[in-house]
Amino acid sequence: MAGDAPKRSWAAGITPQLLFLVIAAALGPLQFGYHLAELNAPEKALRCLSISPKPRSLSSQSSDLPSCIPMTSVEFGTVSSIYTLGGLIGALSAGPISSKRGRLSPMRLSAPFHIFGSLMEAFAPNIPVIVVGRFLSGIASGASLVVGPIYISEISPSDARGALGAMTQIFTNLGILFTQVLGYFLSYDSMWRVVLGTASLLGVLQFISVMLSIESPEWLGTNGRPLDAAKNMRKIRGGFLDEDEAQKWGAAEDSESEQQSLLGEENVSRPQGAHHGTSATSIGFFEVVRHPDNWKAIVAVISVMLAQQLCGINSVIMYSVSFLSELLPTEAGLITVAVGALNFVVTIACSPLSDRLGRKTCLLLSIAGMGINSFILALSLMYKIKILTGIVTLLFVASFAVGLGPVPFILASELVGPEAVGATQSWALGANWIATFLVAQFFPILSKALSGGRVFFVFTGLAAVFFMFISWWVPESREKQNADDVWGREQRSRRQD
User: Fold this and answer.
1) What are phi and psi of 480, to 5 degrees?
2) 333 touches 184 (CB < 8 A)
3) How many CB atoms are closer than 10 A to CB 358?
4) What is the pTM for the complete model shown?
5) What letter does residue 264 receive in the DSSP assignment?
6) pLDDT tens column, 86-101
7) Under 8 Å CB-to-CB from 419, ≥6 apart: which residues?
């Protein structure tokens, strides 16, 4: 069986069990996308801008809820951006937990936060309650975005890792599309509460799915449990044990019985120093930066995550209705739905590209496309060219889906060893959430200061900076066996002693 492994196509490794686990892990990113865009379409109904506020009389029952919640632009910006602060806390917390307790623990813990956060948003009588709900939803989304991509990468066959890793962004875009479609039809009266509350049902589905999931074989193996790791890998791969992957944690044997007998002895080979699961586990959040093998990877993943947000994608996802309504008042909502649909379709279509062209190539193509289209979008808004504005907005989002959408989430698991993935992903997603907060909080302010679409010149400049830096710093990780191979280092087993 081992000799046949290299001949297996990547599709041959996609078993029903693997597909279920990937979808279960991707439901967290789906929630992230949903909450990210949930306030875009129903903003006017939520803020009482399209209807008159319904006053609450003193005699009204405590269960009565206002049909809208009056908010200033600053208050609405706070409601929007508090989600990213919760995401930052969730991202920084989930990495250490996933390294010490396993990948499933933070995914299972995050689901109740999604459920209760969404219910608080849906039944909020005032701004403080909706802020707390958005904050709780952010914590859950931050944790899901850290652990979900790691889990998917670790359970996926090596030759399908790029395609399956794109499920993180595909489900994020599905969540965005779902909430934008709901918002398009339900942005009136108090129906915005239905939009916000629907995410609680997704949370229930997520909770059931992750409770039925099994632990990552790679995490089990590198934490001194190679028998459990081999058992789980066979469950996931339909009885197939990939010896190349299993050798990382010393569980590759010719047969089940031979494996059990050998693993019961002390001479089992653990090439990465994972004997008894001690030296290959749980590198901490600050320790990973000080480690000489990891700091370059930290800089690489942070730069890519910053590029993902600061090239401007969330200016469209979160505020497209706002900045397009001045030029396209009747089409703005429909264009927003089209943006979500295009982002979803293009991400699916481009998901194999990172395995064919390479991670770095896709990133650079994506950044270049976003920079060029951002420049054209600024001009089209300045000169009020309606057709061009609509087309370029769609091309801007399509460029994002080529590389900056899916690739950043799989890089952490490829640029460092498994013992450092959790902490590295926390650094990466921490940077991502900070950048998301900056866009969410300050894009409306910059959009007013740089009126007429000139704010998109800022994104053009940032895209140029990130293109040059990533070209210089970030290595290609496609078809590399491990982090040492990616960075051109000696194998760690040879360097030890």
Assistant:
1) -95, 140
2) yes
3) 18
4) 0.78
5) T
6) 999 998 888 888 888 8
7) 99, 222, 272, 279, 280, 281, 282, 283
